[in-house]
Amino acid sequence: MEETDREAVATAVQRVAGMLQRPDQLDKVEQYRRREARKKASVEARLKAAIQSQLDGVRTGLSQLHNALNDVKDIQQSLIDVNKDWRQSINTIENLKDVKDAVVQHSQLAAAVENLKNIFSVPEIVRETQDLIERGELLQAHRKLMDLECSRDNLMYEQYRMDSKNTHDMNLIHTYFGDMQKLSEELAKQLWMVVQRSLVTVRRDPTLLVSVVRVIEREEKIDRRMLDRKKQTGFIPPGRPKKWKEKMFNILERTVSTRIEGTQADTRESDKMWLVRHLEIIRKYVLDDLLVAKTLLDQCFPPQYDIFNKLLNMYHQALSTRMQELAAEDLEANEIVSLLTWVLNTYKSTEMMGNSELSPEVDVNSLNPLISQNVVDQLLSKYMSTLTSNIIGWLRKALETDKKDWIKETEPENLVVLENLQKQYISVCLMPFLVHRYKDEAQLYKEEHLKNRQYPQCYVQYMIAVINNCQTFKESIISLKRKYLKIEMEDTLSSSHASMDATLDIIAKEGCSSLLDEVFMDLEPHLNELMTKKWLMGSNAVGTICVTVEDYFNDFARIKKPYKKTMTIEAHRRVVVEYIRAIMLKRISFKNAEERKEGAERMIKEAEQFRFLFKKLAAGSGEDTEGLCDIIEAIAEVIKLTDPSLLYLEVSTLVSKYPDIRDDHIAALLTVRGDASRDMKQTIIETLDQGPSQPNPNYVPIFKEITVPTLTVPKLLK
User: Fold this and answer.
1) Who contacts 332 (Cβ-Cβ below 8 Å, separation ≥6)?
2) Which one, out of 503, 536, 558, 644, has a CA that is 20 to 30 A from the CA of 585?
């Protein structure tokens, strides 16, 4: 306390010192004293009130503790009394066991009395239910069956409550209601028959199908109720849960599988098109069934059944199983194509699952593949292996047949012996075999003909067929690539295609060359008459040449483009080359100006005959028929020149137009003129060699193919 007093005094001194800092504050000492007195009184009042409140709380707490102590004592005494009474009544409770048993028995008897009418009428209800089932009144039959089951289940439940181990009484009740189980099975059979024919029933009698669904729904509710009671009591009636909803979907699944499998009406032995027919029937049945399920069946089932989507999944699974079974069979090549086409294309097309009437419920993009990619690859591998073997054999046979036809005395049909190749599924990778074999056989055919030109009789026609076959092959390859090959595969086969295309082009051009050789072998006697005395005297060699060429080209008209145009251009070029070669052979040397004029005019006239002929043959082809014949006319102008002093100028003009003219060509030409001396020839040639050459970039050299004989004419070299 002394410590506290000292602290209080120190605090007071400090406060007083704080209030009396200035002299003028001494006048307010009394005012300060009164204020502090008021504060002190207020603090003392609050302190007293707080102490009083705490004292009242302590007093109340002590009172409640006293009362609680008294209550505990009372409870303790009551418990002693209760314990005493309980010990005294144990014997009394044991004596009431008989009463308890009587109560249980009373409960059972009450249940028996309640179901007594049904118990005695069980045989009659069974007969009535059987009649209703036979008449197809399934809802009424099920109602009576439910009443019977309810009576049995209640009796068995009461027996279970009384004595769960008493199997004798349980069996007695079960036996008494034994016919009821048979009724349940018979009713189920009727239900499953309707379910199996649901897609037919829903069209003819949808009410019957609705009744079946209602029966199944009732059973589902009873199953749930019985399972709930089992959780509470441990008792469940025999035969529960029936799970008729689950059985219904199992029946539907088996029905769908049977329907898919049962569509195969034929075998390979009875019908080569068995698989195509089988797949088409499946397509039609599945599409029809799903349309019925969407428009009619869906309305007969509760929404939670989701019947359409479940049926869709069943059909998809059944189809997948069936397709895998078919894929596992020993299918032929055409059957593999039919199967893969159906699985990969038809199934998701508008002809089936992509049908507009099935949308939006059916999304083809969400459907899983019917067969795995591995199975697809195996089928493709098997198909290619079989097809390769078949086509190689077929091509060999076709080629042998074609070779035999080449020596026939009758013309080929349509001039395309192998045109039916377009109808085969020829893989591009197989074509090199045919192309190279065909090239070799065509060459042998030509060589055999050259040994004896009278044999075979239709050589020209069959050689035309060979040329046309090459073009047909080329067109077929392009068509098949566009039709069957994916874009990403084209890059891998482009080099093979280019090689085959080049080989086919070579075969065709060699065939064209062979035909032209045939023409020029017939023209050889008439070409030998050119630029001879007989020619100058009025030979009709050029007329015969034109008639012969035109006659041949009447047959050549059946050659396909572009080789027909190629033949015309090459024939034109070769005729001109042979004519110029006849000039360069120096078979004639004109003696005077008159002969030179006559010969030159004849050359110009014959050049015009050639021009007219090839313009006629090239009609519509766009070929320029003027340039080649102009060469003959240009040479004729050199021969026709009457003033020898202008000869150099005329020759230089000729050389400027046709820069591939060599010295020996000029010498031969001057020799044919007959008036140029050896020195003149030498001078002209040397002067031309020193002059500039400005060849026409569009000029195709022709003189380089013409050789001048060197045995009779000395070389004129610089």
Assistant:
1) 268, 386
2) 644
